[in-house]
């Protein structure tokens, strides 16, 4: 199997790097500036699971001319349109696109561009960041990549992908309920993002504030109500786990969107919060807290553009 990893940032660089380290046939689709950096310094990973410097196969959009068996799509949601243009030549009749983006908006857009049959489901759980020197730094030991057909059926291409991912230095698993898991991850990300961005603090700080615990639980309930109505209803055990996680006293947890906001970077507001508010509105479901967070993020985005 030949895998094209779109992006060599913190997520794509980590999982793609581990696959390359394990001897898999992996090529990274990168921008010219990132390609130059990687050719000079190599792909550097700093991790509790072991540091490594690799010199992987690289390709730029201008050089891409043949299809791949699978495409691991790891870009930010707000760059998806440009990414689709870049990797389109790599999509052949039998190619499977494995996106690990936040939210669910990207699934509709990928299907519209490449057809439903080309799109698989995927999610990752890995806390990584790109430092000032372009190195991938893993912030915790968690490193899971899950994938499967969106309709849950077993398929030869997913079995081949599972064999390709196995024993590559991270936790890989083929899921028969990947779409449901993607909606459940959105429940966590949208709740966590709205809570920490709107209140500008960690979940522990929000929980300790007057009315903070009720606010957290109300945000989770809004997200759960919308997802249950328009997507795959989350399992009760997952809902309880999210409630417990986000109301833990003294927790230092924040969302990556909050960290981007505090750092003055562009945020995935539409993908994580805005799209959920829109789906709720179209379904006739009020989401006042999520909508307030979305407006707050919109003010930040407009100010940054200005």
How would the blueprint of this fold be written?
Blueprint: E1 2-6, H1 10-21, E2 25-29, H2 32-41, E3 43-46, E4 52-54, E5 57-59, E6 68-73, H3 80-87, E7 91-99, H4 105-114, E8 121-130, E9 136-148, H5 156-165, E10 171-174, H6 178-199, H7 203-208, H8 212-230, H9 236-246, H10 256-262, H11 269-282, H12 288-305
Parallel strand pairs: 1-2, 1-6, 2-5, 3-9, 6-7, 9-10
Antiparallel strand pairs: 3-4, 8-9
Helix pairs in contact: 6-8, 6-9, 6-12, 8-9, 8-11, 11-12
Protein name: 2-dehydropantoate 2-reductase
Domain Ketopantoate reductase N-terminal: 4-151
GO molecular function, one term: 2-dehydropantoate 2-reductase activity
Question: Care to describe what's here?
Answer:
Catalyzes the NADPH-dependent reduction of ketopantoate into pantoic acid. It comes from Azospirillum picis. The protein is an alpha/beta fold and 306 residues long. The chain has 2 domains: 2-176, NAD(P)-binding Rossmann-like Domain (Rossmann fold), CATH 3.40.50; 181-305, N-(1-d-carboxylethyl)-l-norvaline Dehydrogenase, domain 2 (Orthogonal Bundle), CATH 1.10.1040. It contains 12 helices and 10 strands. Helix 1 links the parallel strand 1 and strand 2 (25-29). Helix 6 runs parallel beside helix 9 (236-246), helix 8 (212-230) packs across helix 11 (269-282) and helix 11 packs across helix 12. The longest helix has 22 residues, at 178-199. The radius of gyration is 19 Å and the shape is globular.
């Amino acid at each position: 199997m030949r895998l094209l990893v779109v992006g060599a940032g913190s997520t794509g660089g980590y999982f793609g790097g581990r696959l390359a380290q394990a001897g898999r046939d992996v090529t990274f689709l990168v921008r010219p500036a990132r390609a130059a950096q990687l050719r000079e310094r190599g792909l550097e990973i700093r991790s509790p699971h072991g540091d490594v410097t690799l010199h992987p196969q690289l390709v730029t959009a201008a050089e891409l001319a043949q299809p791949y068996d699978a495409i691991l799509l790891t870009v930010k949601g707000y760059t998806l349109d440009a990414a689709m243009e870049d990797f389109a030549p790599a999509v052949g009749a039998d190619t499977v696109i494995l996106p690990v983006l936040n939210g669910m908006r990207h699934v509709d857009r990928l299907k519209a561009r490449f057809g439903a049959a080309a799109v698989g489901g995927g999610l990752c759980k890995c806390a990584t960041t790109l430092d000032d020197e372009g190195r991938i730094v893993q912030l915790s030991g968690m490193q899971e990549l899950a994938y499967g057909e969106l309709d849950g059926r077993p398929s030869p291409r997913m079995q081949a992908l599972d064999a390709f991912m196995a024993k590559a230095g991270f936790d890989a698993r083929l899921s028969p309920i990947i779409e449901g898991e993607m909606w459940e991850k959105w429940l966590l990300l949208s709740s966590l993002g709205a809570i920490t961005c709107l209140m500008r603090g960690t979940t522990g700080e929000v929980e300790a504030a007057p009315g903070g615990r009720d606010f957290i639980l109300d945000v989770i309930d809004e997200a759960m109500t919308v997802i249950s109505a328009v997507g795959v209803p989350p399992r009760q055990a997952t809902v309880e786990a999210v409630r417990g996680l986000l109301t833990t006293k003294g927790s230092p947890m924040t969302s990556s969107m909050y960290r981007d906001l505090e750092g003055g970077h562009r945020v995935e507001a539409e993908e994580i919060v805005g799209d959920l508010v829109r789906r709720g509105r179209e379904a006739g479901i009020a989401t006042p807290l999520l909508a307030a967070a979305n407006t707050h993020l919109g003010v930040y985005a407009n100010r940054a553009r200005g």
